[in-house]
Amino acid sequence: MTSPSAAKSKQAPRRGSTGPRTALGKARSSKNALRHGLAVPIGRDPQYEPVVAALTARIAGPRADEQCLALARPVAEVVKDHLFASRPARSDVCRDAEPPSAAH
Q1: Which end of the chain has less Cβ packing within 10 Å, N or C?
Q2: Nearest-10 crossing angle of helices 49-60, 66-85
């Protein structure tokens, strides 16, 4: 059971951290994804090109034409993004196509 004073002390830090308040602070924090590389689509990262290409081929199937491959590519990028973002819950969907330099 939490005492009232302990509950109050836990609430104090939450009230203080509400994010940036000034226009400058908001502008700077809006660039965080770019600074950390999170805004780059996985399909444009040359390191993952073999993985995305392999996933595209798997999704499109062995008899896929150019149009089918073009439609499967964005799906493959999303799948790779999801697998990359959720490393602990990785599936072996990409295992065969992983580049050897990728540390997981």
Answers
A1: N
A2: 120
